[in-house]
Amino acid sequence: MPDEVKRPLGYGLRLAQKGERAPDAKTLKGYDGAVELIEDHDGDSYRAVYTTRIDSAVYVLHCFQKKSTNGIAIPKHDKTTIESRLKDARRDAEDQRSASKSKGH
Fold first, then answer.
1. CA–CA dist 51, 53 (Å, integer)
2. Rounded CA gap, 32 and 53, in Å?
3. 70 or 82: whose pLDDT is higher?
4. 3-class SS at 46?
5. Closest residue by Cα to residue 22 from 44, 50, 3, 1
């Protein structure tokens, strides 16, 4: 990803870490609270998808260059990646909670 894309996407993720939301962030429908950041550069579109709905942590689910010719739709392989990583994030959060409980916290 070009630096001109990394900076604004990184800023949007930093806002999420602070409990805020970038003004141009969009809720990604069908992904239980996942949020999409979009940055266009030099004729290309780049996306970062994250969620904050899991134990108030920011989980970055996927960052990619959108190459779909289907308008604004996310390509199927990217959707599959997002879904898989969302499941992994939920499992990770559950593991963290279990570990915390077993330590008596």
1. 6
2. 8
3. 82
4. strand
5. 50
CB 8 within 8 A of CB 39: yes
Burial of residue 57 (CB within 10 Å: 0-12, 13-18, 19+) is middle
**Could you count the other beta carbons within 10 Å of the beta carbon of residue 16?**
22
Tokens 């942590």, residue located: 57
The count of other CB atoms within 10 Å of the CB of residue 1 is: 15
Summarize pLDDT for 45-67 with one digit per residue, the tens. 999 999 988 887 899 999 999 87
Full-model pTM: 0.88
